[in-house]
Amino acid sequence: xxxxEIAARIEKLSTQYAEVYGIERSGEWALLKxxxxxxxxxxxxxxxxxxxxxxxxxxxxxRKVLADEVGDVLGMCLVYARQMGxxxxxxxxxxxxxxxxxxxxxGTGPTGAGPTxxxxxxxxxxxxxxxxxxxxxxx
Length: 139
Fold this sequence. Notes:
By secondary structure, this protein is mainly alpha-helical. The protein contains four helices and two strands, in the order ααααββ.
């Protein structure tokens, strides 16, 4: 299943949720729900890594809660993207993969870095900032 299919299925579930609870879905609502889910992920992380009380859960149950919260964050991120008219595949591809470099054998270039997907002819990346304008700072 590709990301567009996943997003479409989650969108249906999100619409059903809103109908059941009488919620008007919007970009703001989706962003606030995403923020709520990130908070729950942080709580699950603290519990699963022993930095918080165990909440009466053994290690396997803590790991399950952590995985569930990752799923909630990803799901709400996809709902938010759709609400804002953003293609998640395009967004990830444009943001992350522009800095991807092909592997080159060691010692075959000044930095050992190969051409980028954005410009295959660009092989000398010495001195170049691979993440201009702080683009990689959130990674």
